[in-house]
């Protein structure tokens, strides 16, 4: 935390000596028992369980129920829900060029207006919204290609139902399983910007749909939503392992960042990257891409260690998310909104937790502008 301040020209010096932390860095703004992000040791726990075990032995439905209720029920199920005519009409009004994140935010907003959700947000509302959003995003995925939405197969899980509604065909079970694993990995990550946004909105006693619209808005920003699509472009540009070293040195020489590496919190290998790498290894048709990715990863880690001594820059989740999302056949423009689908479980769990011990979130501000001026005569 810091007491430093940027005083505007002509402004009075601040008299408020309370600590100010830009970006709220280092400020503890909530207590939670949902997820632990242990950056130093490279651990991510949902309700105490490590992410690796949850991906290996769980499903997104079981993980979502775990995040919402704290109970582990491996048989839990979530199925895609049909979307209303009102939502389809709203999505049809959007330009086909609209970002899928904007479409998802719009759909959740319309859904919220239709549901008129009562305070206090609960697990039933969380289930309903989490089951709605994949159908809505898939509908827009078709509309933007000039195709009509298709009804969900209600026997599928959310990942399978998303793929089925996107393509209009029965999903490949292996692809659906891989996407389900991606959903688990993306479900929760502590008090990140979008989760904090959702908690702030819930803190005003606003409804769950409003909180998730705000969270989607926060996740849309490139500093948060990540860029697995850029990882894919990067590997495409590198092309072959022999070109990796020069490419990385040139990019760092130009002051660029290597996508898929580094993290604000993790100072060890991102456990989500490890889990998704394992998933990607199970996708036979991604073998060639993955072999290039693994070789490039080794080169990047070695060169970063040499060129950025003392900095601990390891592989992050985006690196292998790129492989999995590509492998299941999603177009890169839909990657960020697919991440938003995954994060529904964590967002809604935080809204429920916030509401259960609610306190309006209202930090203070240090005023650094002019004081006691008179308007010109
Ligand atoms: N490639 C090259 N250099 C990197 C780097 C990367 N991916 N990540 C960090 N660095 C370097 C910075 O250039 C900086 O070096 P300098 O001190 O010589 O200028 C140093 O490491 C610290 O950077 P900083 O931005 O302060 O670290 P951070 O921990 O706050 O950064 C990220 C976190 C995620 C913003 C950063 O690692 C990044 O931009 N990564 C690439 C984008 C990405 O993969 N995003 C998805 C994150 S899940």
Which helices and strands occur, and which strands form pairs?
Blueprint: E1 35-38, E2 43-46, E3 49-50, H1 51-57, H2 60-69, H3 85-93, H4 100-115, H5 123-143, H6 158-167, H7 173-186, H8 193-203, H9 208-220, H10 222-225, H11 228-238, H12 241-253, H13 271-281, H14 287-307, H15 317-327, H16 335-356
Antiparallel strand pairs: 1-2, 2-3
The chain binds coenzyme A.
The site of coenzyme A has 16 residues, from helix 15.
Structure description:
The chain is mostly helical and 377 residues long. It has 16 helices and three strands. It has helices spanning 51-57, 60-69, 85-93, 100-115, 123-143, 158-167, 173-186, 193-203, 208-220, 222-225, 228-238, 241-253, 271-281, 287-307, 317-327, 335-356; strands at residues 35-38, 43-46, 49-50. A three-stranded antiparallel β-sheet has the order 1-2-3. Helix 5 packs antiparallel against helix 16 (335-356) and helix 8 (193-203) crosses helix 16. The longest helix is centred in the last third of the chain and has 22 residues, at 335-356. It is globular. The site of coenzyme A (COA) has 16 residues, from helix 15.
Mean pLDDT: 93
Strand content: under 5%
Q: Write down the Rg.
A: 22 Å
Helix count, DSSP H or I runs of 4 or more residues: 16
Q: Tell me which ligands are bound.
A: coenzyme A
Poorly predicted runs of 5 or more residues: none
